[in-house]
Amino acid sequence: MLRHPHDPIGFEHQQQQLQEQQQQQQRVSDSSDNDLDGVVDEKRKVAAAAAAAAADPALGRQDGLGLDPLDKSSLSNRFKTFRGAFKYLHDLTPQQVDDFMASYKIYNLDWADEQQMVAALGPDYRQKVGECLKAYYGVMNHLCALGDVEKMYIPPFMDKRATVLENQLLYEREIARAIGLAKGDRVLDLGCGRGRVAAHMATATGARVTGINIDPNQIAQAREFNADRGLSNEFVVQDFNSLPLPFADESFDAFYQIQALSLCKDLPSLFKELYRVVRPGAKISLLDWVSLPAYDASNPEHAELMSRVKPLIGAVGTPTPQLLEKALEDAGFVVVRSENASQGGLQAPLIERVDVYFRAMRQIILGLVKVRVLPQHFKTLINRLCLDGEAFVKMDTMRLITTSYWVVAAKPE
């Protein structure tokens, strides 16, 4: 768990714990007088627990996974979120559905092949990619909110006992530790989505987050969600392929991003911008999709799997760990960590959980569409969402790709 001298967590929870322990003492005292030795022993245990809680305010606040109430307080109300997402999807116009489905064409392309990009999208392909991303994420964020991936990322596999949501919280705690977030720090979140990760970072550490995202729909949700929690985080509509970023030099004490870099056309230029806007000594965290050394583009099976997985996860580029490291170092950063953040290097257990959930939901939705309780476009959306989950699991298990590759770097003092 993150700790710093300004940690706002603790006092109220400690008081509550002590009150519960006092009540427990009273219950013991009121028990049978014939078991005096047991009562005395119980009181000693309670007193020892109370003393330990007083010595360490964090004791008793963490669950078995190391998460505390502040971590979980950053989560949304699942029923409210599901209902809101469902209503939004229900009310989509035919044009929005068509634009969403058409947006998938960009995931059959790759930034590395500019000739292919121009042939498919025209000379203004960067603008076309941006338009497709807005159409895609404007719907996809609501589809994801029907399940446990409202934050729109499958996290590293941190703990086999934890749910998908808990694995997200555990990883986000690791980000905050790695980049040294503390109360009052200003941190930039690139590709901030619906602002849920930003809310967790701010709640857990006292830092102030500025999030940027290309999709106005998600930015509006991020602002509302954070404002409802009394957080002063800021959210800006910004395409990070349009540089420079709208921030002054050395504006931020830290930076993080989660699975957004495949959407970046020019990583070296973006990293130079990040170097400019963070202060000397700042650390940055990148979690992203990469192809691994075992992947062979000339292998027909590998290539076929890649063509199925890229649209599923919404990846345009296909970076490698080496490409990320080189671009960071060329920008001036020093790489301090470069590794797969998942236990054993595999995300497959979490990918399978998400896939099973949405496949079960798909059966329910298809049934409701069949009896005309839901509009026909729900069938189109859920069929597209559930396509090729098995391919994702297979590529991860074969260690051809991962979406949990973690790089931490620092700007020299």
From TrEMBL:
Is Acetylation included in the keywords of this UniProt record? no
Cellular component GO terms, alphabetically? endoplasmic reticulum
Which residue intervals are annotated with compositional bias (Basic and acidic residues) in the record? 1-10
Where the record annotates domain Methyltransferase type, the positions are 188-284
Residue ranges with Low complexity bias: 14-26
Keyword terms: Methyltransferase, Transferase
Q: Recall the GO molecular function terms of this protein's record.
A: sterol 24-C-methyltransferase activity
Residue ranges for the region (Disordered) are 1-40
Q: Name one GO biological process term.
A: ergosterol biosynthetic process
Report what the protein is called.
S-adenosyl-L-methionine-dependent methyltransferase
